[in-house]
Amino acid sequence: MKKLLTFAVLLLTIVWAKAQEDMTTVWETKLGHQILRAGTSLEGEHSYAASDKEMSLFDNNSGKVLWEKSFSEMAPKLRKIDELIPFWASSTIFLFDRKLGKDQIACINLETGASLWTTDKYQDVDESSITYISEEDCFAITLKKELVYIRAQTGEELWSTEKFKGVVGQYYFNKTDHTLTMVNFKPTALEALFVGFKNQIARINLKNGEILWENTYIGLAEKKIISREPIYDLSVSDNKVFLRLNGMQVYDYKTGAKIWAAAYDFTPERVVGKPIGVKAFGVYGAVADPVIDGEDIYVLDMQSRSKQYVKKYDLNTGKLLWTSPEIKDAKAIPGMKVVDGKVLIQIGGVVEKQYTKTVRTADQVYTISAIEFDNVKPCGIQAFNTNNGALAWESERFRKGITNMISFNGNTIVCSGKELYSIDIQTGKEKYEVPVSKGGVGLATQIQPFKDNVIVVVGEKGISTFNASSGELLNSGKYRTSSLEDRVGNILVMKTDKADIGTFDLNTCKYKDFKARTGAITTLSNEGDFVYVYEKKVITKLSTL
Hints:
single chain; five-stranded antiparallel β-sheet; 2 helices; mainly beta; four-stranded antiparallel β-sheet
C-alpha cells in the first residue's frame, strides 16, 4: 500500500512537472546597459532596447547586437533623451530632447544608428502627432497651427497647410492621383493648445497640400492607448467613403458631400473608472460595431442612457427601415450579432481598458502598459426580429452577470462567468447549461471561439476548452492567477501581476511557463511562436511551441 501511494505521488509529480514545462530559450543576450525602453519589430528582422543614455539594435533571429551607441554619439545636438519613437516601416526612430519651447528632434536610421536629420523647428510633438505615410515614405506632423509634410529620410519639408487641423488618422491613399482621404483627431500633446478644432474628414493633394474637399464627422476618432489600433474604420468603395465610428457615416468620394449618416456621440470613459495614477487611459468595445448583412446595416444608437435603440438602414441609401423598442438603462452594449433572422444584443459584460502608469520601487522606476478587461453591469441578452425590429425575446438568465457572447458555426454561446449557455436563437431558451468550474480554472473572465466548434474559456487561473455543440469539457490547463495578455491563432498568453507568462496551446491546453522579474516587458510574435522578454540588461527570446 505504501509503495502504491509512493508511486501515485511520484506519478502526480511527473504529470505536474510536465504541465509546468518551461519555455525553451532560443537565445539570451546581455547588453552593456539597462533596458528602460524596448521595441520589438514583429514583422521585421531587428528590435531595439535602450537606457537613458544608450541604445542597442539586435537581430531578432540570432540575438546578435548589431550596434550599441550612446545617444550623444547618435545625436550630438541633443543634450538628453526624453522620448524615442520607432517607425519600423521607414526604418527610422525619432529621439526627443524636450525643453519648453526649444524641443530638439533627431531622426535616426535604425539599421545603422546614424543621424539622418535634426531640427528644432517642430515643437510639442509626440507619438500621437506623427503619421507615417508609407506609400510616399513621408511623415505628416501635426503642429499647433499647421500640418507639415516632410520626407522621412531627409527631413525636407514639402508643404504645410493650416486648413487641416489635427493629426492625420486612418487614411485611404489613391496611387493614381496621389491624394489622401483622411479623418483627423486631436494629438495628446497639443490638445489644450488647439483653437477652433473641429472633427474633419478631408481629401488632400499630397503634391502640394491643397484641400480638395472637407466635411465634418460625428464622434471621436482616436487610436487605442497601448495597441494603437484605430477605434474606427475608413474605407472607400463604389465612389463612397464609409466611416464606421459610433455608427456609420457615408460621403461622396469625389465631392465630400455627406450622403447619409447614422451616428451619435458617446463617451466610453464613463463606463468604467480610471485606475489610480494613470498617465493615459482609454475604454474600448463598450458599444458594438455596426453589422452589415447583405444590403442592410444594423446600428446601435447610444444617444444617452435613456435613449438607446437598434436601427436598421438600407446600406446604399441610408433609409431608416425600422427602429427597435427602447433598450432601457444599458451602460454598455459590447455585443451585437445578426443570426438566423434575429438581431442579438449583449447588454453589459466585458469591455477593454488600456492605460499606462509609472511605478516606483526602491531600486527602479518603470512604466506599466496594461491591457485589461472590466465587467460592466447591468447585464442581459435581447433579440429583435430582423424583418420588423420587434422584440423577439429577452433572457432573464443573465441579469446577475455576463462576460461575453460569441456566435460561430451555428452555435450561440453566452457565458455568465460561472456557466456556459448554448442559446436557441429563435426562442432564447437554453439548449444546455454547463458549469465553468468543470474546467478547474476559476471563474471565466471571457470566452472566445476556436476552430469550428470549440469554446475557449479564459479563466482566472488558466484556460479550458469545451465542445460548442454539446458543452463537453475537452481540455484544461490550470495556471497561476493571471489575465489574458495576447492571442495569436492557437497560442494564448496569460500574464501574472509579477510579469510571469504562460503560453497555452489551445489544441491541448498545455502551457509553457516563464518566470519573469516584476516589471519585465514581454512581446508575443505575430505568429505566436516566440515571446521576447526584456529584463534589466537581458533580452531573452523564448519558444512557445
